[in-house]
Fold ImmA/IrrE family metallo-endopeptidase.
Amino acid sequence: MAPYDLLIEQALGYGLVVKEKTFLSNAKGLIKGSKIGISKEMSTVEKACTLAEEIAHYLLSVGNILDQTDIRNRKQELIARQWAYQCMIPLDRIVQAYKKRITGRYDLAEFLGVTEEFLQNAIDRYTSKYGIYVNVDEQYTIRFDPLGVVEMFP
């Protein structure tokens, strides 16, 4: 099942209603209460990335955070994006891609079901959280710059 379809099922499990709409603004997605609107002008992959973030807002954000000049709103936005990155690009999936010999950002993004921009933003966030590398399952090290996986042998 495609990531977008899985996320729609996840949203339904939380009691959310997801509708594809045409927005008057440049917004990709919006949430109000238990209703999520996703711009129907996007690709399915873009919709999945956006829906993951909107689900995160439902789970983690409080109040109207549209005013990004308020530091509290920016923090909530960052927390929601981080949840979306971890949802769509968990570190073990990067290791799985390595095991399948997937190389290059385009192929990795396609394997993960995300846009290249979302992948880069996730890598940037992981770098700020973990530093230039992180160990996964004591057998692998993911290097973020340049992006790669190193397998440790006992």
User: Anything to note?
Assistant: The chain has a mean pLDDT of 94. Helices lie at 3-13, 44-60, 71-88, 91-99, 105-112, 116-130. The first strand starts at residue 17 and ends at 21.
